[in-house]
Automatic annotation (TrEMBL):
<dbReference type="GO" id="GO:0071555">
    <property type="term" value="P:cell wall organization"/>
</dbReference>
<keyword id="KW-0472">Membrane</keyword>
<feature type="region of interest" description="Disordered">
    <location>
        <begin position="1"/>
        <end position="26"/>
    </location>
</feature>
<keyword id="KW-0378">Hydrolase</keyword>
<keyword id="KW-0326">Glycosidase</keyword>
<feature type="region of interest" description="Disordered">
    <location>
        <begin position="64"/>
        <end position="92"/>
    </location>
</feature>
<keyword id="KW-0961">Cell wall biogenesis/degradation</keyword>
<dbReference type="GO" id="GO:0009251">
    <property type="term" value="P:glucan catabolic process"/>
</dbReference>
<feature type="compositionally biased region" description="Polar residues">
    <location>
        <begin position="74"/>
        <end position="86"/>
    </location>
</feature>
<keyword id="KW-0325">Glycoprotein</keyword>
<dbReference type="GO" id="GO:0009986">
    <property type="term" value="C:cell surface"/>
</dbReference>
<protein>
    <recommendedName>
        <fullName>glucan 1,3-beta-glucosidase</fullName>
        <ecNumber>3.2.1.58</ecNumber>
    </recommendedName>
</protein>
<dbReference type="InterPro" id="IPR050386">
    <property type="entry name" value="Glycosyl_hydrolase_5"/>
</dbReference>
<dbReference type="GO" id="GO:0005576">
    <property type="term" value="C:extracellular region"/>
</dbReference>
<dbReference type="InterPro" id="IPR017853">
    <property type="entry name" value="GH"/>
</dbReference>
<keyword id="KW-0812">Transmembrane</keyword>
<feature type="transmembrane region" description="Helical">
    <location>
        <begin position="126"/>
        <end position="151"/>
    </location>
</feature>
């Protein structure tokens, strides 16, 4: 068999796998698998390889349906045998271009030296049977191409990688088998922890490759309930403390419960709720993004805030390593801010807003800007800027639009002063739409540098509606009215935002058509829907229910285009079962109401006869980073601080403010003992050394209302001022 055919068979097989790194360089482990004459068996045995990869940039490109060979000008490696005589001028160096749908396409450099003299001898001396020529033929035609597929020639000799069927060994020594039917492969290189070569599937660019908005699509999941707790996602934790209604009160009660570990219980949750195997499953599900809600207390907490300080940051760093390993991009979501930006039970004391609203609205916004700055400095480092291309600066602010626009403009200018402008200079700045219609965002801050809009469309927000899911709809498709409603309610609005605003994603959505689910409406609230038992008892779903929910998912995903599901997993309650099942991507994936392949959603709305005007995918140059500028009129119209703050008892000039004179917080970086010093040199948590302004702190001698209530003990009649800024020398942490 020719090496060309071997490579074509390999290209149509599954991605290479890993069993044990020690097997990578031992030919005796490889040859037995290739003694059969059956090509399929040879290709299937390729996953036995534990692979060491060397070169970081892929040179294999997509070819035609069968794959094709292309001659190359000069050989780039030595002869594949130790005999100098075998390197003849007739030898040809060629590059194999795999089919576009192959796991090999765009992923590996594959080069063959076709030794014409040896090929002639193989054809003419078949009678040698199992003799020397046959053995050489096997080595040349099978082993060496595979060997050079998985062993690269440069200093990165500690890189391990594997695809579908490979065995991953965790830090604690346990193992699991990686499953990925979509051509994805993981990469682990202890000597280069910033290796961005992995990809989660064949249709998603590797992290070290460019993402093209309008062409590449976001298919992702949130890691909700992990570093920011929500009662319906982790009900068992809240059931331990029945009077806890949010993370604020939960933290107070936990801290007092020293017998059961106090706040250390939260770290146990961080450690176990999201694991490396979760990230591997996400990549194997055909997804390419994870959105990670992070609390502001991952950076610091102030007196009066009961949260577990800084610990979640350690686990966020661990997550970044896993995401890189499996080729998943990350959307960092600042999910909580000082004072609370909405009334939800995951941002602070339930029911209060004092961000850009109320007497502490300005001070809390100043402190939030500081935390955004600290996070921007960290994620804009070269080691993370490709891994974290999206930064959701404030989640779901429900505050007046004028004040919010002033804040967004200030945030944009601050971030770009740190990162610089244009593609590759820091993340896209993701702003939430504050649940406003598309018309509110048309032409928003034209000339800005890479701002993306985040929508959170949920079917369950429409009030009580008990229409069933486990029935056929008007077009004869499962799901009743709900799939069509998802298309008509979500689709045109998000397409209008792409047309009128720019890059737009749906950062949260679910398949839930109602508000059924334990603690979904809060610890002390239940749904008025009379059919909740049908939706909560997922183990009893029949095929009609599963098909209906699957149809809702496909319609929603097709309507939204770029989407991130809320959320990846729901933990069981103390009853031992998941009681908000419609919000768990993992559960739906395993039980049949989330499709195994997310691409099956494409075209669903058209099949439901829901027509919409689709955005063609060509964003304006400034929307994706071509240098431009925001008109001065925008800064005039939306100044910082804003002209006024809603619900404040005094004019903005009398409101409490913070001063920027505190030492700068530089977030700690992970350590990599196996990496040489030149790899981590300059990796210190702070990207822009010219950014030396101090951090937010209270003005000495000034009174401040409670961060969350904002009630004045004494109403101010004159500003309380202090030093406004300080330049801080940046050194080592």
């Amino acid at each position: 068999m020719s090496t060309s055919n071997v490579w074509r068979d390999l290209a149509s097989s599954q991605a290479p796998s890993m069993d044990s790194p020690n097997r990578a360089t031992h030919s005796q482990d490889l040859l037995p698998a290739y003694q059969s004459g059956d090509v399929a068996a040879r290709a299937a045995s390729a996953p036995i390889l534990a692979v060491r990869q060397f070169e970081s940039q892929p040179l294999l490109t997509a070819g035609d349906e069968q794959g094709e060979w292309h001659s190359m000008a000069e050989p780039t490696t030595r002869s594949w045998t130790s005999n100098p005589a075998s390197s003849k001028k007739a030898d040809v160096t060629r590059e194999f271009r795999a089919p576009a749908n192959s796991w090999l396409a765009g992923s590996h450099e594959i080069r063959e030296r076709a030794y014409e003299e040896n090929a002639r001898r193989r054809k003419s001396r078949v009678w040698f049977g199992v003799g020397a020529v046959t053995l050489v033929s096997i080595v040349l035609a099978v082993f060496l191409p595979v060997f050079f597929l998985v062993i690269r020639k440069n200093s990165q000799k500690n890189r391990f990688t594997g695809g579908d069927g490979s065995v991953v060994t965790l830090e604690n020594g346990t193992k699991f088998t990686y499953r990925n039917a979509f051509g994805g492969f993981w990469v682990d290189d202890p000597s280069n922890p910033f290796d961005d070569f992995a990809r989660p599937n064949s249709w998603t660019p590797a992290i070290n490759e460019e993402w093209h908005w309008g062409e590449n699509r976001v298919f992702g999941v949130n890691l909700g309930g992990w570093l920011v707790l929500e009662p319906f996602i982790t009900p068992d934790i809240f059931q331990r403390y029945p009077s806890a209604t949010d993370e604020f009160t939960l933290s107070q009660l936990m801290a007092a419960d020293t017998v059961n570990g106090g706040l250390a219980q939260l770290e146990a949750h961080y450690h176990t709720f999201i694991t490396e195997q979760d990230i591997a499953e996400i990549a194997g599900a055909g997804l390419n993004f994870v959105r990670v809600p992070l609390p502001f207390w991952a950076i610091e907490r102030w007196d009066g805030e009961p949260y577990l300080e800084k610990v979640s940051w350690t686990y966020f760093l661990r997550l970044l390593g896993w995401a890189r390993k499996y080729g998943l991009r990350v959307c960092l979501d600042l999910h909580t801010v000082p004072g609370s930006q909405n009334t939800h039970n995951h941002v602070g004391p339930n029911g209060t807003i004092n961000f850009l609203t109320g007497n502490m609205g300005l001070a809390n916004a100043q402190r939030t800007l500081y935390y955004i700055r600290v996070l921007t400095e960290f994620i804009s480092q070269p080691q993370y800027r490709d891994l974290i291309p999206l930064f959701n600066v404030v989640d779901e602010p429900t505050v007046p639009l004028d004040e919010l626009t002033s804040f967004y403009l200030k945030t944009h200018n601050m971030i770009r002063s740190i990162t610089g402008r244009g593609p590759g200079n820091g993340p896209y700045i993701v702003i939430h739409d504050a649940f406003q219609n598309a018309s509110a965002w048309t032409g928003f801050l034209q000339g800005s540098d890479r701002i993306a809009l985040d929508e959170h469309p949920f079917l369950d927000l429409g009030g009580l509606d008990a229409d069933p899911v486990a029935v056929l709809g008007a077009t004869g498709q499962p799901g009743g009215k709900w799939p069509g409603l998802a298309c008509s309610r979500f689709g045109q609005n998000i397409e209008n935002n792409r047309q009128g605003f720019g890059v737009t994603i749906a950062g949260e959505f679910s398949v839930a058509p109602n508000d059924c689910g334990l603690f979904l409406n809060g610890v002390n609230s239940t749904s008025a829907n009379p059919d909740c038992s049908k939706y909560n008892e997922w183990a009893n779903y029949n095929s009609s229910m599963k098909d209906g929910l699957s149809s809702i998912f496909q319609a929603s995903a097709d309507a939204l285009g770029d989407w991130i599901f809320w959320t990846w997993k729901i933990s069981p309650s103390q009853a031992g079962t998941i009681q908000a099942p419609l919000w768990s991507y993992q559960l739906g994936l395993k039980n049949g109401w989330i499709p195994k392949d997310p691409r099956t959603a494409q075209g669903k709305c058209a099949s439901l006869n829901v027509n919409m005007s689709r955005f063609p995918g060509n964003f304006l140059p400034w929307q994706t980073g071509t240098p431009s500028s925001i008109p001065a009129s925008s800064s005039t119209q939306f100044p910082w601080p804003p002209a006024s703050i809603t619900a404040a008892d005094v004019p903005i000039s009398l409101l409490p403010t913070y001063t920027n004179t505190a030492p700068i917080i530089i977030l700690p970086v992970p350590t990599f003992p196996a990496a040489p010093s030149q790899v981590t040199q300059g990796f210190n948590g702070w990207f822009n050394r010219n950014d030396t302004e101090g951090g937010a702190v209270k003005v000495t001698g000034c009174p401040y209302p409670d961060e969350y209530s904002g009630s004045f003990a004494v109403t101010p009649t004159a500003p309380c001022t202090g030093p406004t800024t300080s330049l801080v020398e940046l050194g080592s942490r």
